[in-house]
Amino acid sequence: MNVRTAVIAALLIIAIVTPGSALLGEKEYPKFLEEPWDHSPITVYIDEQNIPPHYSPTYPATVVNAMEYWENGGNGKLSYTPVFELVNTNDADIYIMWVENMEEVTGAEKGVAGFCRPMVANGRYVRADIVMEVGDYRGYSWQQYGDANMEQLVTHELGHALGLGHSNDPRDIMYPTYEQRENINPLLVETTYPLIIIAVLIAIGISGYLGVGWLRYHKRRQKLEDKLLKK
Ligand SMILES: [Zn+2]
């Protein structure tokens, strides 16, 4: 068992034993946090600077639609009404970016089309990163995601950024479909426990993000994490 496998195994075990994890039944709708943000509006930055070759300039509009979905009641599972504000600074609460291929760029498992990684401190989100890929292999050929597909993916990830876990109901936007199957990242949000946070940092380090834009961002993020976690 190499280090990475060990970390992932550890995280999965933690996820399974952690109450309220996405593995629970629908009776209690799985939530990472009931009310993750301590302020409103929730600011959103869409990264249109570091874009992959098959990025579509129509994608930001899908984000706007996704924000409206949640502002207008979403899937009915939020206990609060979120208000979003698009901002032009990447110090935003929610950072959204695209990569060409999730598996190649972020080291995610096959079939992962997007993920949301919230950063938790004192039981609240301090920020959440949403990374989407612009397409995936269907059969033998690579296909770019169209706007309808992208909107679904972004809406789902935004749901995580609002504190929701995965639904067992295939009709629910928070049901993880094949395209929306994510890696372990969303499960880490239960965590205010130091051990898990350390595991997160190790996992982040090991996955080795390769995108140039991602790398630059990752350094900024590392500083934030150092500030938050090493006091
Ligand atoms: Zn998900």
UniProtKB/TrEMBL annotation:
UniProt cross-references to SUPFAM superfamilies, sorted A to Z: Metalloproteases ('zincins'), catalytic domain (SSF55486)
Name of one Pfam family that matches: Peptidase_M10
GO molecular function, one term: metallopeptidase activity
Membrane-spanning residues: 193-215
SMART domains according to UniProt: ZnMc
Annotated Peptidase metallopeptidase domain residues: 33-195
Keywords for the protein's UniProt record, in alphabetical order: Hydrolase, Membrane, Metal-binding, Metalloprotease, Protease, Transmembrane, Transmembrane helix, Zinc
InterPro entries xref list: MetalloPept_cat_dom_sf, Pept_M10_metallopeptidase, Peptidase_Metallo
Protein name: M57 family metalloprotease
Species of origin: Methanococcoides cohabitans
